[in-house]
Amino acid sequence: MTKEIYQEEELVGTTAKRGGGSFKDYLLITLIALVAMMGINNYIDARAGSGAGGCGGCGVASGAASSLTEEELVRIGLEFYAENSGDTEIADVQARVRDFGCHQEIYIYKGGRRVMRIGYASGQLFRMS
Predict the structure, then answer these.
(1) Which among 85, 75, 76 is positioned nearest to 110, based on CA atoms?
(2) Is the pLDDT of residue 92 over 50?
(3) Where are the chain's structural domains?
(4) Are 108 and 81 in contact (CB under 8 A)?
(5) What HEC string does 47-93 produce?
(6) How far is the C-alpha of 109 from the C-alpha of 123, rounded, in Å?
(7) Which of 22, 59, 77, 91 has a Cα-to-Cα distance from 109 of 20 to 30 A?
(8) How many whole angstroms separate alpha carbon 67 and alpha carbon 120?
(9) HEC profile for 83-111?
């Protein structure tokens, strides 16, 4: 008489899966990887200043890379105001610069009241409002 010994593996509270995962598992992993890659790509683009991110979509980060100083921006802002406003009395006109990282804005004040807002980005001046 032979005695046979059987071994059973018992998994308590779980079921063993044989074979591959379900379609839902693969889809979930793919979506997680896609979202992670998009986040990494956006971070890299924003740091490189390629215009894809950072600055709320402003484009190239010009704060540190700007070749114009605040004094130069004040000067060209005042010149822009004089050329585009038709105002000949600029004795009481002041300009202030605010750096947003992706662009600078030059605020023109006359008599303490803001009369013009000028933007500067990528070497170009433009009237904002």
Answers:
(1) 85
(2) yes
(3) 23-53, 70-127
(4) yes
(5) HHCCCCCCHHHCCCCCCCCCCCCHHHHHHHHHHHHHHHHCCCCCCCE
(6) 23
(7) 59
(8) 12
(9) HHHCCCCCCCEEEEEEECCCCEEEEEEEC
Round to whole Å and give the CA distance between 62 and 127.
18
Torsion over CA of 74, 79, 83 and 87, rounded to 10 degrees?
A: 70
Q: Which range among 16-20, 57-61, 88-92, 104-108 has the greatest average pLDDT? A: 104-108
Report the first-to-last Cα separation within the chain, whole angstroms: 101
How far is the C-alpha of 70 from the C-alpha of 98, rounded, in Å?
9
Q: Which amino acid is at 19?
A: G
Q: What is the DSSP-derived secondary structure letter of residue 55?
A: G
Look at the chain and count its residues. Answer: 129
